[in-house]
Amino acid sequence: MKPARIIVVAMMLPLLYTSASAQSKFNKYALEHPFSDPGDSRTAYKKRKHDDRFEGLHTEHYAGAVLDLVSYTQGGIDYELRKGEELHITSPLKKHKLIGVSGTNYGMGVYYRVDMEMNPATRRTLPVDEVLRVVNIGPQKLGLYGYLGDNEHPAIYLPLQVTSDVLKQTPDNKLQLILAANRNMQAVNWTYTPVKTGKVSKTYTVAGKPVHYKGDAIVLTLPAELAAMHGEEVMINAEGETAPKSTPALLDFKIMIP
């Protein structure tokens, strides 16, 4: 581990999200490379009618990163793939006037995105009918997160609360942070660094199988002392090795604790 590198990144990032207009309503790559079955454009990534959200399928996008953050929520994501189902999205952090909201699937042979903006004082609705039900993307394969900054390279990730209109569940307070890899991965380790103190935590190892296969959910279980840092910005440094070639894979990103 190289703590100095983590601290430098953490010090630079606040400069990137001070602008209130930094969010984008759409993902540029997905909009320029939509995908749908021949003769059926319903599920292609595009702006949806009667809404300002962009949602749908796009061609595979490999940007060079082996590991990616795919979900950051307070409470899990659960819903039914049935007609009329909707996801209600809210933010437990109310301090920002406008945030970006994005979602992606993982571990499937199709590539889905949803992008929109949200005033944290309100809630957004994501209909399951239009794309998720048609393509059969269930809750075990969908990630959602809030963010500030650039859509493709967020400066900081914010948690979201997601509830089902059909299931009508009450979200719990457990923070869920999920990564996914575009290659098979051996053991993934991670540390956290509060921006306020710059003190690097001990190293945590992701529990589970000895090999995380391409597209598997790699769940970072946040320790109690980290989850209790309410309102703080924290740098996460994850690293592992691809299997079987043992090529290093690194991912640094910043989150805010609600």
Overall description:
The two termini are 27 Å apart. Strands 1-2-6-5-8-9 form a six-stranded antiparallel beta sheet. A hairpin with a 6-residue loop joins strand 15 and strand 16. The chain is mainly beta and 258 residues long. The chain has one domain. It has helices spanning 3-12, 28-32, 132-135, 224-227; strands at 46-47, 54-58, 67-74, 86-90, 99-105, 111-118, 124-127, 142-149, 154-158, 161-164, 175-181, 189-194, 204-205, 218-220, 233-241, 248-256.
Structural class: mainly beta
Q: What quaternary form is this?
A: single chain
Strand content: 35-45%
Label the overall shape. Answer: globular
β-strand number: 16
Average residue pLDDT: 89
Query: How many helices in DSSP terms?
Result: 4
- Secondary-structure element order, N to C: HHEEEEEEEHEEEEEEEHEE
Main pleated sheet: 6 strands, antiparallel
Distance between the termini: 27 Å
Question: Summed up, what is this model?
Answer:
The chain is 9% helix and 36% strand.
What's the topology here?
Blueprint lengths: L2 H10 L15 H5 L13 E2 L6 E5 L8 E8 L11 E5 L8 E7 L5 E8 L5 E4 L4 H4 L6 E8 L4 E5 L2 E4 L10 E7 L7 E6 L9 E2 L12 E3 L3 H4 L5 E9 L6 E9 L2
Antiparallel strand pairs: 1-2, 2-6, 3-11, 4-7, 4-10, 5-6, 5-8, 8-9, 11-14, 12-13, 12-15, 15-16
Q: What keywords describe this structure?
A:
258 residues; 6-stranded antiparallel beta sheet; 4-stranded antiparallel beta sheet; 9% helix; disordered N terminus
